[in-house]
Known about the structure:
Radius of gyration: 19 Å
Helix content: over 70%
Shape: globular
Order of helices and strands: HHHHHHHHHHH
Largest sheet: none
Amino acid sequence: xxxxxxxxxxLKSKRTNSRHLMLIGPIIFIAxxxxxxxxxxxxxxxxxFLMAVAFNWYPSIILPIFVSxxxxxxxxxxxxxxxxxxxxxxxxxAKVFQAKHFWVLVNVACVIFIASILLYLVNFILIKDVxxxxxxxxxxxxLWVGILPLIATGFLLSRLLHPILVHVVLFMLSFxxxxxxxxxxxxxxxxxxxxxRLMAITAKVHPNGTFLPPSHPMLASYNLYLGVVLSLLAYMxxxxxxxxxxxxxxxx
Length: 252
């Protein structure tokens, strides 16, 4: 069904550089991962350094950069004149809000999808490690679910902080504190490390980048269910908070 609000965001995105990032970003990242694997020596049997590097660096460093760029771009498209137009034509603010969130979710999903295809092709053509397609799909899906709290946080921060600070804060939230707390019993209280715990299960990679042994506690199945539920709950809570701030500022 045609949605004019989503179509509007799509048309706006065609005039920005963020659409190029969806293709160029994953290419650069997977190329980086490939060259990193060349420095790591021989791969342990049944493992893949490419898979480990990709799904360890992606959620902690690379994807937060993409998320912040997408969010800052889509929020900053609305100038003061657009707010006047919204009021004059009685535009439904809730649908504008939903369209912007939806478009960023789609952009992030596309970035993950493209990177996953490139990861498989690079491994199939150049490295030839044992990587199942199901593992890539599974890890990519959980990567998207785990990054949801960061997306909602980015939107909230974009309404309160300068764009440069949004980039800095999102990067800091998902980098060092997340890596530390993901390896502790306090990870459930820090939404921005949920994605690392999910990657530990699906890609079997420790938050510090090393391979997990089969009997490691992080691989327990309940961690997967808990991580997914917590990510969705955190996303919905932060989404509600973002909507409250957006609605209050829209009526000013």
